[in-house]
Amino acid sequence: MRCGEASSIGAYVLGALDLRERLAMEQHLGVCAMCRQELIEVAHLPGLLHRLTLDDVIKRAATPDS
Fold first, then answer.
1. Which residue ranges make up each domain of the chain?
2. CB–CB of 40/6 below 8 Å?
3. Which residues of 37-63 are buried (b: 16+ CB within 10 A; e: fewer)?
4. Could you please report the per-residue DSSP string of 27-49?
5. Putative zinc-finger domain location, by residue (predicted)?
6. Contacts of 9 by beta carbon, 8 Å cutoff, 6+ apart
7. Residue 17's pLDDT is what?
8. What is the pLDDT of residues 8-65, one digit of tens each?
9. Distance (Å, rounded) from C-alpha 38 to C-alpha 36?
10. What is residue 38's predicted lDDT score, i.e. its pLDDT?
11. pTM of this prediction?
């Protein structure tokens, strides 16, 4: 079973929620163990995305899957 709020965790991690939504998510994370676990699992993504360049994306898109 998955929490209905879990769909907003990606936006939360990326900083895409407005202030009201962010505060609501932070409050929710205080009471929802499933969402806290999901947050732990995706918290590293902004750092990885920051290291990705446009050239990396273009090269990957041009390379057929093996």
1. 4-62
2. no
3. ebbeeeeeeeeeeeeeeeeeeeeeeee
4. HHHTT-HHHHHHHHHHTTHHHHH
5. 9-36
6. 25, 35, 38, 39, 42
7. 96
8. 999 999 999 999 999 999 999 999 999 999 999 999 998 888 888 888 888 888 777 6
9. 5
10. 94
11. 0.73
* pLDDT over 60 at 66, yes or no: no
- As separate numbers, helices (DSSP H) first and strands (DSSP E) second, the chain gives 5, 0
**One-letter amino acid for residue 12 of the chain:** Y
**pLDDT given at position 63:** 79
